[in-house]
Design a protein that fits this description.
With 389 residues, the protein is α/β, with parallel strands linked by helices. The protein has helices at 7-13, 17-67, 79-92, 99-114, 131-140, 152-160, 180-185, 222-227, 229-235, 247-254, 266-272, 319-329, 362-371; strands spanning 121-125, 145-149, 166-173, 177-178, 192-200, 204-207, 217-220, 240-243, 260-264, 275-278, 288-295, 305-313, 334-341, 349-356, 375-385. The protein has 4 domains: 45-116, Chorismate mutase (Chorismate Mutase Domain, subunit A, Up-down Bundle), CATH 1.20.59; 119-201 and 287-297, 3-Layer(aba) Sandwich (D-Maltodextrin-Binding Protein, domain 2), CATH 3.40.190; 204-279, D-Maltodextrin-Binding Protein, domain 2, CATH 3.40.190; 299-385, Alpha-Beta Plaits (2-Layer Sandwich). Helices cover 42% and strands 24% of the residues. Mean pLDDT is 88; it is low at 1-21. GO terms for molecular function: chorismate mutase activity; prephenate dehydratase activity.
């Protein structure tokens, strides 16, 4: 005869799940212990990183002392030296962080070290939130003092007057070509090109409501309107397109009415409190803008340089061929050529030419020595480090 009253006890004793559940806390404790070890190791690494950054800042201060008491931060800044440091960062990188991430980190460290006593003052085409400001931060880091200015001409003027140390101005776009107003400034300005920045440009449609159906008017810089014309034709064919001085100015205007929108970067939307309606909306996936860094002096070779020239040709047959032939003979690669009215007489033209190399070195110097035979005048706008990424 079976005693049925004992069955519940037997069933409970035979359960396997509770025994497994009792072992889980031990496993979890092991995982927690391992996690604490990993975090402790990361904390130690963070301390060492901070100590090394502090050491670097102290040595940067010693460099200032070694150079003597100079007048301003701009006199300590050496773009060729920064370019060499950053190229070594790229050469050493074996992952997992990308080249772009490491460059940004080191750029910010160098920017902070340089700005210990006084930051560089850098003008850009404002207002706040433009792609020019993004290019400025990419090149100089966030420790530089960014000065928003109303026009490209004003950027040049503030550097010439000494109110700004450097400036960042757009010069060409991969899809829309040259920004002519920038080139024309070099015809009369004595400023020099000290560097270049290439910025991958993503355009977004921004508005106060965030609804496409509300939009009757779109503000943007003419270049941005051109970069997005196919998207606008397909999605806002009847909306009025209004060109303005900058994309940030477009964002400022769009924030005052529900039926208005701006084409600009996401940063401008954040600055002016706009919502993203759509984006990226640029017609070309490789949409990139090149910016020039302008200042008051030349700098030494970095080892990976570009030289920009302003060449006035004589009015004679084969003038342009004669100007370019010295570069060909000496194996100098020409990166870009652009003609503009010379402003010195009717139907007179000047050529903007970019070549690989530094004007003080090797083949470029040899080619330059022969240019005078064929050009009425040659102005070296600058020899500067090639953009890294």
């Amino acid at each position: 005869m079976v005693d049925k009253r004992k069955r519940p006890a037997k069933k409970a004793a035979g359960k396997a799940v509770p025994k497994t559940a009792k072992r889980a806390p031990n496993a979890a404790a092991g995982d927690t212990g391992r996690l604490q070890e990993v975090r402790a190791e990361i904390d130690g690494i963070d301390r060492r990183i901070q100590e090394l950054i502090t050491q670097r800042a102290h040595w940067a201060a010693k460099v200032r002392k070694a150079k003597g008491e100079l007048k301003a931060a701009v006199e300590y800044y050496r773009p060729e030296r920064e370019s060499q440091i950053l190229r070594r960062v790229l050469d050493r990188n074996q992952g997992p962080l990308s080249d772009e991430v490491l460059l940004r980190l080191f750029r910010e460290i160098m920017s902070a070290c340089l700005a210990q006593q006084e930051p560089l003052k850098v003008g850009f085409l404002g207002p706040e939130g433009t792609f020019s400001q993004q290019a400025l931060h990419k090149h100089f880091g966030h420790s530089a003092q960014a000065l928003p200015l109303a026009s490209i001409e004003e950027v040049f003027q503030e550097i010439e007057s000494g109110n700004a140390d450097f400036g960042v101005v757009p010069v060409e776009n991969s899809g829309q070509g040259t920004i002519q107003s920038t080139l024309d400034m070099f015809l009369t300005s004595r400023l020099k090109i000290c560097g270049e920045v290439e910025l991958r440009v993503h355009q977004h449609l921004l508005s106060r409501t965030g609804r496409l159906e509300d939009i009757e008017r779109v503000y943007s810089h003419p270049q941005s309107l051109a970069q997005c014309k196919a998207w606008l034709r397909a999605n806002l064919p009847h909306a009025e397109k209004v060109p303005v001085s900058s994309n940030a100015e477009a964002a400022r205007r769009a924030r005052v009415a529900d039926d208005c929108a701006a084409i600009a970067g996401e940063t401008a939307g954040q600055v002016y409190g706009l919502k993203v309606v759509a984006g990226p909306i640029e017609d070309r996936q490789d949409n990139t803008t090149r910016f020039l860094v302008i200042g008051r002096e030349f700098f030494s070779p970095s080892g990976h340089d570009r030289t920009s020239l302003l060449v006035f040709v004589r009015d004679q047959p084969g003038a342009l061929y004669n100007v370019l032939s010295p570069f060909a003979r000496h194996g100098v690669s020409m990166n870009r050529i652009e003609s503009r009215p010379a402003h010195s007489g009717r139907w007179q033209y000047v050529f903007f030419i970019d070549v690989s190399g530094h004007v003080e070195e090797g083949n470029v110097a040899q080619a330059m020595s022969e240019l005078g035979e064929y050009a009425s005048d040659v102005v070296v706008l600058g020899s500067y480090p090639v953009a890294l990424l």
